[in-house]
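Much of the work behind modern protein science is quiet bookkeeping, done one molecule at a time. The protein below has been through that process, and both of its lines are reproduced in full.
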Amino acid sequence: MAKILIIDDDELILNVFNRFLTGKGHDVMVAPDGRQGLRALEREVVDLVITDIMMPETDGLEVVMAIRGKGTSTPVIAISGGMHAMPMDFLPMAKKFGAEQVLYKPVELDDLLVAVNKALGLG
């Protein structure tokens, strides 16, 4: 199926998303922060990036801007937890910077699959 890069500083999310998407037939790579995620993108071509927004080193907004700054059309799904209840919600900003879709944590796996399929043009 597709090669997907997941970038998140939460090891549990990396593991759960990795197992789930691998089980759906995808080739999954993971990175624990934006800096390592961007390094992975320098080495590998991927079909989809799923990135958290709030991370150490390089945050998800920087990841989205870097991907779009290279002129690539790689779809990006941005995720973040609890921010919609705070005064500063970064997910709408991620969409303005070029993320095709945004999901609030906790992400239901069914919702993740719908977003991934949509981003990949599978559904």
The mean pLDDT is 92. The chain has five helices and five strands.
